[in-house]
Amino acid sequence: MVGTEQPPVDAEPGERRHRTLASRVFEQLRRLIDRGEFPKDFKLPTEAELGTRFGVSRVVVRGALMRLREAGYIRSVQGSGSVVVRGPAFGALVYPAVQTIGDLERLYEFRITVEAQSAELAARMHTPETLEVIEDALRDADRMVEHGTPELAADLNFRFHRAVALATGNPYFIVTLERIPNLIGFGRVQVKNFGIEDPIERLRGIGADHWSIYEAIRARDAQRARAEMESHIGAARKYIFERQPIAE
User: Fold this and answer.
1) Same domain? 133 vs 179
2) Residues 75 and 109 grouped into a single domain
3) pLDDT digit string (tens) for 204-214?
């Protein structure tokens, strides 16, 4: 499986789940550092704050931070927690931060344009290898729904969109998708499931969208792939704006 670390087969279920979640949080934090959203010399939030942000326990966060230290992304400073020691992986360019409702609207406008074109090009240019990367992301997401672990949803959702960009064969699309703010772990965007009490049911709907996009790409139906992606991201935008409360 591409990009997924597998724990030892003899690991206990609880330990295996912690390792999987820690691996996902590690990847999310690594991307935030690589993208410049957590810049060099930035002091990371506390374990408790990161746990709330990513919807996981402090034990999981501790495992992710340990991997970041081992990979040379952060260092521990006595009395100050963890500090970032690496700059952005892609140079100085950083997309504007999402800080207002207007920023969020403009972000979705940009995503619809870029990702619809990405899906169209992926339908024309994919290879068996890049198609397999998309399939791996989709099957991982299906397993997450089956096992009832919605904590992994944001990261797996991002993996799918990045895999579509990879299938274009165009590095500009790949890097752009890597850099676009994906809202993973953004505590300030607390979307309420009004009308959809079960988050797993919401994820099944997202998964159905993703499989439809994949089928269009696999069939090399470029116009359908574009339309499916436009509809998918448009629905995500509508979902946030219709369910985001103005105040608690």
Assistant:
1) yes
2) no
3) 889 999 999 99
Helix axes 101-125, 171-179, angle to 10 degrees: 150
Given a contact cutoff of 8 angstroms between Cβ atoms, the answer to whether 147 and 186 are in contact is: no
Say if 4 falls within a structural domain.
no
Pairing of strands 74-77, 81-84: antiparallel
Q: Which residue has the tokens 């374990």?
A: 47
Residue 153 belongs to what domain range? Answer: 101-243
- Cα–Cα separations (whole angstroms), residue 201 to 135, 186, 204, 207, 239: 21, 21, 5, 10, 14
Check whether residue 120 and residue 218 sit in a common domain.
yes
Looking at this protein, which amino acid is placed at residue 173?
A: F
- The count of other CB atoms within 10 Å of the CB of residue 132 is 15
For the stretch 37-95, pLDDT in tens is 788 888 888 888 888 777 778 898 999 999 999 999 999 988 778 999 987 765 555 67
